[in-house]
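Let's sit down with a protein and look at its sequence and fold side by side. Please make up or recall a protein chain and show it to me in full. Label the sequence line and the structure token line clearly, so we can match residues to local backbone shapes. Go ahead whenever you are ready, and we will take it from there.
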Amino acid sequence: MESEYNANSSFYLSFLSRYVDDVNFTLWLHRTVVYPLIVTFLLPFVFVFLIYFSSISLYIFKFHSWLLLKEIKADDVKFWKVAIKFIAAVWDAHATLYHGYEICGLEHLPKDSNGLLIYYHGAIPIDMYYFVAKIYLKYDRLIYTVGDRFLFKLPGWKIIAQALKVSPGTINSCTDTLKNGNLLAISPGGVYEAQFGNHYYELLWQQRLGFAKVAMESKAPIIPMFTENLREGFRNIGLGRRFFIKMYNLTRIPFRPIYGVPFVKLRTHLGPPIYVEEGDTPKKIQEKTAAAIEKLIVENQRIPGSIVGGILDRIFEKRKIDIVVNSARQKKFMNNKDL
């Protein structure tokens, strides 16, 4: 194996040396550019691995529940709960080690009543996996989530959706979930925001009003949610944006490649609840919710996002965030007394 690696390396260096005269520069390029590049594009596969590890683990719990219950000698234990606890512990450990994940504003999250979490969608919604895991471990409450329909065509996803209460979500089904006293998370931007958002953190909701109609029907409070440095942990490649937009519009499948950076600090912020008032329309509710999330972004996120700054945030906890936004946006959301 080692001889094969050395042969490959020699071939690669020989190939580079044809175009680069300085051998030292060639070695530097190989060690300081190529390796980090490989790592950044492999990181999203760690995320995929965790999803399939979760799927396999849930199947193990499902098919061998009788044996597991016998071993722990607790016939009344619900094996799904044991399985979800295990999966949540795995994701929480990953969140802590890789991203020093934490949540701010937990006082805004209902502890024993319903609530509609509306969140900004990153290139990968890894913050939602972390958030669901930490809330389940801390409060023993499972947050229902709405996922894009293409997910349900992926092998292994069905059991995850079954155990973790992920569904495509209709206005009626989401309303029923909230009326039953549950917490429900929706990203209005969805896959489109994930694929075509960038490190300027602009909301790409495309006039979607479904969540607002759900809030009106269920009378559930809306809790705005945003995760700091989310676009620094995982980003879409910058090339071919128009091509990938056309592909998405044709297929509704996310094709745009993603790369990741380890050790970026991720911190989820929850804002004060937004209540539906008499006379509110879906459009008005959407605008109030968007403004609340924009406020969380402006107050907690450096704009444009910085990968180096995101990594340093893990070292310097008491840092002053350098918010670089245009004066009009800052004035609108930082000095808006109505918010």
Remarks:
- The chain has one domain: 86-334.
